[in-house]
Write a structure and sequence with these properties.
Radius of gyration of chain B: 23 Å
Shape of chain A: globular
Structural class of chain A: alpha+beta
Number of strands of chain A: 8
Number of strands of chain B: 2
Strand content of chain B: under 5%
Largest sheet of chain B: 2 strands, antiparallel
Helix content of chain B: over 70%
Helix content of chain A: 10-25%
Oligomer: heterodimer
Strand order of the largest sheet of chain A: 1-2-8-7-6-5-4-3
Structural class of chain B: mainly alpha
Shape of chain B: rod-shaped
Mean pLDDT of chain A: 83
Low-confidence stretches of chain B: 1-6
Largest sheet of chain A: 8 strands, antiparallel
Strand content of chain A: 35-45%
Distance between the termini of chain A: 40 Å
Number of helices of chain A: 4
Strand order of the largest sheet of chain B: 1-2
Amino acid sequence: MTTITEATIEADPKLPMIRITRDFAATPEQLFRAHTDPELFVRWIGPSSLSTRIDYWDARSGGSWRFVSTRGGEEHAFHGCFHEVSKDRLVQTFTYEGSPDGVALETLRFEDLGDGRTRLHTTSLTDSFDSRDGWLTSGMEVGVNEGYAKLDEMLSDGTV
Amino acid sequence: MVVATETLSRIFAALADPTRRDIVARLAAGDATVNQLAAPYEMSLQAIYKHLRVLEEAGLVSRPPGPQPRPVRLEAGVFDLMEQWIERYRRQAEERYRRLDAVLAAMQNEEDEETDE
């Protein structure tokens, strides 16, 4: 079996869905804990430049969660429900409070590859193509210079 | 470069609209006539022409001369742009997962120490 050491991504053309797959040198149980134990979760979820604190967190089927990421005076809050919490599968909703009407359904599957390795399959189903593409292009402001550099290249070589 | 900046602004503005993004996504599957493009939308053909004109002016689509009805064609450069957006999103996920790698390694160390004791 091939090893997926770098995250692979797929934006489904027919569904407003993003799929991400990645292998980890950990057991499904460890990966499950890293996603459900709030103390472990805050250590990896946010971009390094943000610090994340848990507002509430009840990782059981029917429970709910909310966390807030801050950088200086800037705050980004996220909340959702744990729809299903089981050893090999997590199903949860996800809302970025910056666009409070939007909600995504996230499914995380922990596939045991044996030898202490696990493949994580994540799907995020958003409520419209518009919001899916909004997600994909989010951070465009941050990375816009990169985008412009690439476009400059395309413009100068006549691609556009 | 003023000209380039204006072109860039046009591309970003053209892609900011969900209908136009949808048209671009559908053209990625292959050329289509204006009537084919208009079919799924509840808007006038005139409104679709308007969207196409914006895309055309941004250089994202073209209608090469030929027999009627002339198909609308996606200009290949837009793929690079889209791929770049997706790639940036992927990189963000990869960075997050590298932090997760570190947490998992730390968890493993703690477990090993507990077993040693």
